[in-house]
Amino acid sequence: VSLIKTISLKSLGDERGSLVALEGNKSVPFDIKRVYYIFATKEGVSRGFHAHQNLKQVAVCVTGSCRFVLDNGKSREEIILDSAATGLVIEDLTWREMHDFSQDCVLLVLASEHYDKADYIRDYQKFLKAVVK
Length: 133
Ligand code: T46
Known about the structure:
By secondary structure, the chain is mainly beta. The protein has one helix and ten strands; from the N terminus they run ββββββββββα. A five-stranded antiparallel sheet has the order 1-7-4-9-2, with no helix packed on it. The chain has a five-stranded antiparallel sheet with strand order 6-5-8-3-10. A hairpin with a 4-residue loop joins β5 (66-71) and β6 (76-81). The longest helix has 9 residues, at 124-132. The two termini are 20 Å apart. The relative contact order is 0.29. The structure holds dTDP-4-keto-6-deoxyglucose (T46). Residues 34, 36, 38, 47-48, 57, 59, 96, 109, 115 line the site of dTDP-4-keto-6-deoxyglucose.
């Protein structure tokens, strides 16, 4: 099974333009407890480089593009997010890296849990130990 799981977000377009609605436990497969967005990322900067013990997320690049790398300790896969109608589902215990942010990239992230600093695994070796458990 591919590590890359995406959901197609229905664009409710009409002659005025487009609209995408995100609803917890409907288009998004969990209760949404937190929303954040990453923007104005400096050129050449990569982000992420961590996993979460207990956090599900859906990431949508609403403007611009960026490249996600997901790693479950066994394989590494990547996807370019460049559509406001595509959500990338990121399960727990998945290492993530974000690269190649376009200048105009706005990366919207919906999260299943509130922010918890203790939930992050920022050391790749510790991540590998956590996934074999
Ligand atoms: C993830 C990827 C996709 C908060 O205080 N509250 C929050 O909800 C978040 C997400 C971050 N922060 C603080 C923690 C740091 O001082 O904001 C700062 C930047 O966060 P971080 O270095 O973790 O950012 P990224 O881009 O490396 O990772 C973020 C999320 O933190 C992470 O959960 O999966 O985006």
